[in-house]
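In the lab's daily routine, each protein ends up as an entry in a very long ledger. A line of letters takes care of the sequence, but it says nothing directly about the fold. The fold becomes a row of whole numbers, each drawn from a learned catalogue of backbone shapes. The protein below has been through that process, and both of its lines are reproduced in full:
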Amino acid sequence: MKSAVNRRALYITETAVMTALLIVLQAVTKPAGQYVTGTCVNGALAVSVLAVGLWSGVTVAALSPFFAFLLGIGPQLPQIVPAIAAGNLVFVLLLGLLAGGGEVPLWRRGIAWLAAAAGKFAALYLLVVKLLCAVLPLKEQQAAMLTAMFSYPQLATALAGGGIALLLTPLIRRAARR
């Protein structure tokens, strides 16, 4: 029983560390722009699901956009925060379900990475560009900015962050002896 309690405490602690790392990365990279911040965020999301576990990834993915909003990162429209959380959740769920766990072949991790990036891009494009831009009372300039932010840059940053995480995760898992 004690070992189960210790494992649970470790899991919660690692999830908290990943959440804190993500917040720090968002704050530090904010001046560098969407491509740098997005890559770092997606990398942290991918590491949390691949190195810690699915529920860790889900937790970090759901919390990330709320902290970004509070830090003034991205558009300051509260209606977009749940859409970003949904995109993050698609990313970590696809990555975790297709490539999570221990020793997964490289080809499967590659497919999971591509599917997760494409899934996040599709979710954000549909939710923000096609749905929210159509129903929110936005000025033309705001809609254009959201379309630019939530289209192909999302695919690029998900691919970059996920790729970096795929390279780092085996090292992290080995250091944590998993």
Summary: The radius of gyration is 16 Å. Residues 16 and 60 are 8 Å apart (CA to CA). The mean pLDDT is 94. The chain is about 85% helix and 0% strand.
